[in-house]
Amino acid sequence: MVCPPAGTTDWREVIVAKLVLTKDGKVLDQHFLDKESITVGSGPENDVVVPDPALSPEHLRVISIGEDHIAENLQGDGGTLINGQALSRQILQNRDVINFGSYQLAYVNTRMAADIDLERTMLIQVIPREPGAAEGAPLFAVPAMQPPKVRLAEGYVTIEACESGFNQVGERIFLERVVTTFGTPGEQLVLFTRRPQGYFLYHVEGRKQPHVNGRPLVANAAPLRSGDRVVAAGYQFTFSSK
User: Fold this and answer.
1) Cα separation of 178 and 143, whole Å?
2) Which tens digit of pLDDT belongs to each residue from 111-144?
3) What distance in Å separates the CA atoms of residue 138 and residue 143, rounded to the nearest whole number?
4) What is the pLDDT of residue 207?
5) Is residue 70 part of a domain?
6) Spatial CA neighbour of 60 closest among 92, 15, 23
7) Are 104 and 171 found together in one domain?
8) CATH code for the domain in which residue 44 is found
9) Cβ contacts of residue 127 below 8 Å, gap of 6+?
10) How many CB atoms lie within 10 A of CB 222?
11) Which of 65, 84, 139, 192 makes the best surface tag, with the fewest CB within 10 Å?
C-alpha cells in the first residue's frame, strides 16, 4: 500500500497527477487531474485559469487516458512550449514544464516518481556487499547493464468506411506510434494506444460511443484483438495485429 508523504493528508498527492501553475517561481494554483479532460486558458470557465490576456480563452487541454495524460495545444501555433519545444499534442512525463508567456505549468505525477524511487531502493537492497564488510562499506562494483529493449506490439487498421473522406476505403494505416488518433478534437475523438502487451482503444470525447464487434465500448476503453471490427469517430475499421 502506498502511504501519503509525511505531513500530507490529501491522498490525491500520491495517487493523482496534477498541474502546478507558477510565475517567477511562485506557485499560483494547482489542479488535480481527476477527470477525463481539463482545460487551461485565460477564460474564467477553465479548470486552470491563467490571468494573462495574451492567452486564448481556451488555450490548452489535458486529456486523461488510463494512467497517461496528453497535452493538446488548442491554438495550433508555436508559441506554447513544452520543455523548450513547440507543443502540438504530446504524452506528458513527470516534471514536464509547459511555458506560455511568463507563466509555467508543471506536470507532476508523484505516483510515477514514487514507483521509480521504490524500484531504486529495492535494487540497492539486493546488491550484496563484500564478504565481511562492515555496514556502510562500499557495495560490490556492479557492471553497467544495458536496459532491456521493450518490444511493442505491431498492428494496423484497414479502413472499411470513412464519413469524412480523408481516407480511402481499403487503405491500411499502420499503428506505429504510441498513440494514434482518429476523429476531430472537440467533436469526436478516439485513440489507439500501442503497448508491449498489445493495442487498446480509448474513447476520448464525443456523444457517439465507439463499438467493437457491434458492442459499445465499456468504461471508454478496450483491448483489441486481431480481426476486431471497430466503428468510431466516423470510421469503420478492421484491426489486425502481426
Assistant:
1) 32
2) 554 444 443 443 334 334 445 544 444 444 444 4
3) 14
4) 86
5) yes
6) 92
7) no
8) 2.60.200.20
9) 139, 140, 142
10) 21
11) 84
